[in-house]
Write a structure and sequence with these properties.
Blueprint: H1 2-25, H2 34-60, H3 62-67, H4 70-107, H5 113-126
Length: 132
Amino acid sequence: MDGFFSNLESWVKRQSMVKEMFEKAEQNYKELDRLALITLSRLAFQHMGKTIEAFDQWLKDPMITSHMPREMLVELWSKLRVILYELIELDIEHTSKFSEHLRKLAEENALNPLFAFEKEEKETRRGVSPTI
């Protein structure tokens, strides 16, 4: 059992360290350039994905499922549902705004022609009508 407790403590310590790393990296995020913001966002998504995967595995573990009190599960869902709906709203909002931005660029003929040409070429070869 000592190994189990040691693993839990190590996980919590690593997550705390990652949180501190992100807090330092994003301190002046409003002044970061595009590449730094993309990198920061991608690293955040990667870490969230790994954490979600680990959480899912955690809830599949018989040791956990056998001993997790219902109250902790209610608390977990209470917090998880907020994250879930916020993520869905973020996705809807971000995708909608970017779609509008691309439409505006297309109307102004301001899309990078390398990307527009590549997309049209692929779609023509497959017999698919061009879309943005």
